[in-house]
Amino acid sequence: xxxxxxxxxxxxxxxxxxxxxxxxxxxxxxxxxxxxxxxxxxxxxxxxxxxxxxxxxxxxxxxxxxxxxxxxxxxxxxxxxxxxxxxxxxxxxxx
Length: 95
Known about the structure:
The radius of gyration is 13 Å and the shape is globular. The chain is α+β, with helices and mostly antiparallel strands. The longest helix is centred in the last third of the chain and has 18 residues, at 70-87. β2 (16-21) and β3 form a beta hairpin. It has a single domain (6-90), classed as Alpha-Beta Complex (Aspartate Aminotransferase, domain 1), CATH 3.90.1150.30. The protein has helices at 34-43, 70-87, and strands spanning 6-9, 16-21, 25-29, 48-50, 59-63. The N and C termini lie far apart (28 Å). It has a 5-stranded antiparallel beta sheet with strand order 1-2-3-5-4, with helices on one face. It contains 2 helices and 5 strands.
């Protein structure tokens, strides 16, 4: 069980996490590489940080209600979904 709720794409236990929901934060797959994900850190220092444990894989934690506009956070969640969806076998992808 996770400390905070998670959001997955794909069926049941085979689903893959694309967002971690925290109190005032959301953890997302920010980019395919750590270097690309670092753009968030440069644009929003203090409101975007490398996610613990899985940050080396391009995951960041974004602060909700801070300097990052809500529409950018929503777009980041959509992008995270797309990145994780692309890694699922086609038979497990939602139609």
